[in-house]
Amino acid sequence: MDEYAALLSVATLWVVAAVTPGPNFLVTVRVAVTQSRVAGLHTVAGIILATLLWASAGFLGIHSLFNVAPWMYLFLKLAGGAYLIWLGLKLLWGSVDRTVTSSTQDVISTHGWRAFRLGFITNIANPKTALFVAGLFAVAMPPEAPAALGLMAIALMVTISLVWYSVVAWLFASRRISRAYARLGHWIDRVAGGCFIFFGVRLVRE
């Protein structure tokens, strides 16, 4: 019974974290709207792989590793923040001059491997995810939780992320939303670019 309660706690906390708009949400929406549903789902696959890695690292105690080697966390934080700021600047530049939109879209998406890579890097670039997961396990899981329970919790987190971001990619790839983007693309890119820069700066400063 305690195991079910722990898994319910993990699921509740992770649902809240997943549905809260952040870089993963923004990049999934951007790829789905500007490219295709398939490209959006490739981006989701990259996000899911990074989620699996961060969840596994959180369960194994990466927070302790960061305490032992704080330079590692600092490096990941600065690199991740710089990457998000770079994405944001690319979007802003593309929104100002539509002649560079195609090059911007090459950065923010495309198909197959590149869309997968974009989703993976966007998620793995945020080491705060590992700290959040470590805190989640500390709060929701019993002390010295067995490996089987940890694996179930990780599988639950991956499943929640997969379902949520797949739904996002599916919905935002609809023709109606794509047509709206065609009309308002400049402003949407400016808002998205500003959000990426905001997330990047916040990651670097915290």
From TrEMBL:
One CC-aspect GO term: plasma membrane
What topology does the record note for this protein and the membrane?
Multi-pass membrane protein
What's the short name of a Pfam family annotated to this entry?
LysE
Specify whether Cell membrane is a keyword of the entry: yes
Tell me where on the tree of life, at the top rank, the source sits: Bacteria
Q: Which UniProt keywords apply?
A: Cell membrane, Membrane, Transmembrane, Transmembrane helix
Determine if Membrane is one of this entry's keywords. Answer: yes
Q: Which InterPro entries match?
A: LeuE-type (IPR001123)
GO molecular function annotations of the record: amino acid transmembrane transporter activity
Subcellular localization is given as:
Cell membrane
Q: Which residues cross the membrane?
A: 6-27, 39-62, 68-89, 118-141, 147-172
Name of this chain's protein = Lysine transporter LysE
